[in-house]
Amino acid sequence: MPELPEVETIRRQLAPHLEGRTIRAAEILDPRWTRPTPVADVQRGLRGARVERVGRSGKYLVWKLAGDRHLLVHLRMTGALLLDPPADPPHTRVRFELDRGHRLLYVDPRRFGTGHLVTGEAARDAYLAARLGIEPLTPEFTTEHLRWIARGRNAPIKAFVLDQRRIAGVGNIYADEALFRAGIHPLRPAGRLTGAQWARLREAIEAALSAGIEARGATIDDFRHVDGARGSFQDRFLVHRREGEPCPVCGRTIRKLVVAGRGTYVCDGCQPRPRAARRPGVGRAAASPAVAVASPSESPPGPAAAARTPGPRDAARSAAPERRETRRESRVPKP
After folding, report:
1. Does the annotation count 59 as an active-site position?
2. For residues 197 and 204, is the Cβ–Cβ distance under 8 A?
3. Is 206 a residue of the active site?
4. Any idea what DSSP says for residue 52?
5. Which residue segment(s) compose the domain that 25 sits in?
6. What is the CATH number of the domain that holds 248?
7. Are residues 106 and 186 in the same domain?
8. Residue 206 lies in a domain
9. Does the annotation mark 3 as catalytic?
10. pLDDT tens digits, 272-292
C-alpha cells in the first residue's frame, strides 16, 4: 500500500501539472470508486472544475477545487495515477480529461481505492478527522502527545503505529524501519514505552519517512510515479523484507514474524524482545505496586509530569532490597 512518502511523491509530481488546470470531464468506470455517492453525481461535480491546489493528509491526496469543493483520493493497496500514458493500461478505473489535451488515469487492479467529493472545508476536515490521527513531520507530532495517546494501551507498538486514527500515513514498511532505527521490538506494548523510547521512536518515524520521500517512495509491487517510473527506497531498507540477511548494525540474522496480521521484520539483537507478562500473584509481580493509568478524559500532562510516571522498572527497584535480603537468609547454614 502506498504510504505517506509514496503519496507525498505523487502529490509533488502531480501539483505542477494539475494546479491551475481545468477538468473538462471525468469518466468513472468503476462505481466502487465513489461509493456510496452515485457516479453521476461525482462526474457532474468534477466537470469543468478548476484545480486550485493539490495537497495531502496522511495517505489521502486532497484536490482543492474551485467553489470550495474537495476531491479526496485514497490509492489503497494498488492504486496509481498516471499522467498522459500512451494508452489505457489494464485496470483503468477513472479517466480525467484535462485542458490543453492532457489526461490523467487512475489505475487500480484490486479496486480498493476511493474518490470522495465533498463541499466545504468543514466537510473535508470532518471526513479526514474521523479517519486520521496526528500527522508526522508537523510541529504537533511531539513525544509528549504520542506518549499520552498510548497510555494504558497493551497493543503491540507496531499495531499502534499502524493505526491511522493514531498516527497518519505510517504503514508496514515505515513502521518496520522506524522501530528498527529506534531499537524497539514491534511486540513491546505501546503503553509500556518509556519517555526516552518515545522520543527515539518519534525521531525514527520522521527519519524513515523523510528517507522514503527523498528516495521518491518504495516500489515492491504496484507503486509507480505519475510517469510510470519506480521508487527506490526498497534499495535502502534496513530490515524490511530482509529476512535471513545480516543486520546492518550488529550482524545478527534478521527474522520475520507476524504482528497485527502484518509481516514484520526485526533484529533481536538491536530490538530486544519484551519479557512475557507475568501472571498476577506469581513471582515479583505480586510485590509490584500498581501503575496508575490516566482516564482518557483527562488533559495530557506536560513533559515533566510524564517523566515522573512510575513504571515497571520503578517496581523492580522497590522490590530489589527484599530480594537481596531473601538471598542472604538462604546462604545461612542450617544448624
Report:
1. yes
2. no
3. no
4. E
5. 4-129
6. 1.10.8.50
7. no
8. yes
9. yes
10. 999 874 444 444 433 333 333
